């Protein structure tokens, strides 16, 4: 996650776009969409509401011999790190193109993920982004188009606030009736709550049902070990999920958003049965059950 100005970017939108089919989660656990870089591709990118700026992984920048454009401080889950910056002419997914883009180079993953990069909020600005993991579909629509058609069956919009000083969006969420905020992060594989939220929601991380999980490594590669286990009922918008498992960990990024308050990082694991329409520019989101939800576990 970064706090950067986006003044150097220009958008090109073309008509009504066709949905793209997502690739299933591979060894890295991320669902990806096909994207084109400088007209070449497709390459697997993560479509990520939790990234303020689009990025590429270092191995991909090297493979494409992308031109360097200095360096930048990258603020991730576990802290900050100085990373290389690269320049590309165009980044395209589902008919939507971002031109004259400067991208940070993410440290290469330590798992088996083969993602080339991340499509962030700069890419989604001025669009309605649709996420439907159960139907294996992602879409990008212009905000000036048929908004009612895109949000059909989704009910009333939920107003979203900026999370702290970031460009990320947050919405109200309840865990076991306790109220907190949830930062929408479709690029996060496992949802997380801080210890403050765990206490308010009567979640006992010392119970036998909890255990330590693999360390979380952010941009600075300083690992933090989360506790994982059942946190109970989670409610956001019209969505109610029971028997939810999540990580409990006090990440620095959570304190940046709202220090000392109940915070959740709402990831793709809890959106597997949800149809989400995301309007970053208008700070609105729509939730409804996915039409394909019955097939998620089938």
From TrEMBL:
<feature type="signal peptide">
    <location>
        <begin position="1"/>
        <end position="18"/>
    </location>
</feature>
<keyword id="KW-0378">Hydrolase</keyword>
<dbReference type="GO" id="GO:0008233">
    <property type="term" value="F:peptidase activity"/>
</dbReference>
<dbReference type="InterPro" id="IPR034122">
    <property type="entry name" value="Retropepsin-like_bacterial"/>
</dbReference>
<dbReference type="InterPro" id="IPR021109">
    <property type="entry name" value="Peptidase_aspartic_dom_sf"/>
</dbReference>
<dbReference type="Pfam" id="PF13650">
    <property type="entry name" value="Asp_protease_2"/>
</dbReference>
<protein>
    <submittedName>
        <fullName>Aspartyl protease family protein</fullName>
    </submittedName>
</protein>
<keyword id="KW-0732">Signal</keyword>
<dbReference type="GO" id="GO:0006508">
    <property type="term" value="P:proteolysis"/>
</dbReference>
<keyword id="KW-0645">Protease</keyword>
């Amino acid at each position: 996650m970064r706090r950067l100005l986006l003044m150097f970017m220009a958008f090109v939108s073309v008509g009504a776009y066709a949905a793209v089919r997502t690739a299933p989660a591979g060894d890295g656990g991320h669902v990806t969409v096909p994207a084109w870089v400088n007209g070449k591709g497709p390459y697997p990118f993560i479509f990520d509401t939790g990234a303020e700026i689009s990025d590429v992984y270092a191995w991909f920048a090297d493979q494409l011999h992308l031109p360097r454009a200095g360096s930048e401080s990258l603020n991730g889950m576990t802290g900050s790190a100085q990373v290389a910056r690269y320049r590309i002419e165009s980044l395209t997914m589902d008919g939507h193109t971002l031109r004259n883009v400067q991208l940070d180079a993410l440290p290469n993953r330590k798992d088996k993920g083969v993602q080339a990069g991340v499509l962030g909020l700069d890419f989604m600005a001025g669009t309605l982004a649709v996420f439907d993991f159960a139907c294996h579909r992602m879409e990008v629509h212009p905000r000036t188009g048929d908004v009612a058609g895109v949000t059909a069956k989704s009910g009333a919009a939920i107003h979203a606030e900026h999370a702290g000083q970031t460009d990320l969006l947050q919405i109200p969420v309840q865990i076991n009736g306790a109220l907190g905020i949830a930062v929408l992060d479709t690029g996060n594989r496992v949802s997380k709550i801080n210890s403050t939220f765990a206490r308010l929601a009567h979640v006992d991380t010392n119970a036998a049902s909890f255990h330590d999980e693999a360390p979380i490594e952010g941009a600075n590669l300083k690992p933090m070990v989360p506790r994982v286990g059942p946190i109970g009922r989670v409610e956001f918008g019209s969505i109610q999920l029971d028997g939810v498992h999540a990580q409990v960990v006090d990440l620095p990024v959570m304190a940046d958003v709202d220090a000392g308050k109940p915070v959740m990082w709402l990831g793709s694991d809890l959106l597997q049965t949800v149809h989400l329409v995301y309007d970053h520019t208008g700070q609105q989101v729509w939730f409804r059950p996915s039409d394909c939800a019955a097939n998620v576990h089938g």
